[in-house]
Amino acid sequence: MDKHPTLSTLCHIIKDDKYLMMHRVKKKNDINKDKWIGVGGKFEYGESPDECLLREVKEETGLTLLNYSFRGIVTFIYGEDVVEYMHLYTADKFEGELIDCDEGELVWVPIKEVCNLPIWEGDKIFFRLLEENNGFFSLKLVYDLNDNLIDTELHMN
User: 106 near 94, Cβ under 8 Å?
Assistant: First the structure.
């Protein structure tokens, strides 16, 4: 069987020392069920990472990003069947009003409180990297099917 990895974007939008987080409670069969994550999604055929980012943020939040930064690549491996290359962004300028999202509840969460939420264990690593702002990074996160983080690999540029 020929398996292909998923290409996606993940964005943490910042306002007033808060991240816009999505509490994933609305989708059926959601690998992120009940977890808190940033916004973003899968590439459409032919899209660049930036095009995917802008489209997904607009679709999920109603916001148009005006200033954003490509911060790193996160290789997310879950069991034997899920491999996702997440293009990780932060954004600090946008326009528009938040809309209701059909994938989860959107909430502005103080940055210092994000790691206390039910998030993926490995997300704590990239939140620290984002905060330290030491440049572009590549982070590999390997999980078992019980959501346990079993391996990590970090490369900084």
Answer: no
Position 30 scores a pLDDT of: 65
Grade residue 1 by pLDDT with cuts at 50, 70 and 90.
very low
User: Which pair of tokens denotes residue 128?
Assistant: 């620290």
Q: Which of 68, 70, 52, 58 has its CA nearest to residue 8?
A: 52
By CB atoms closer than 10 A (0-12, 13-18, 19+), residue 80 is exposed
126-144 exposure pattern, b = at least 16 Cβ within 10 A, e = fewer: bbebbeeeeeebebebbbe
Residue 128's nearest CA partner among 150, 154, 108 is 154
pLDDT tens digit string along 97-125? Answer: 999 988 889 999 999 999 999 999 999 99
Map out the domains of the chain with their CATH numbers: 6-156 (3.90.79.10)
| Cβ count near 116 (within 10 Å) | 10
- Identity of residue 94: F
* pLDDT tens-digit map of 27-49: 666 676 788 999 999 999 999 99
Question: Which residue type, as a one-letter code, is found at position 48?
Answer: S
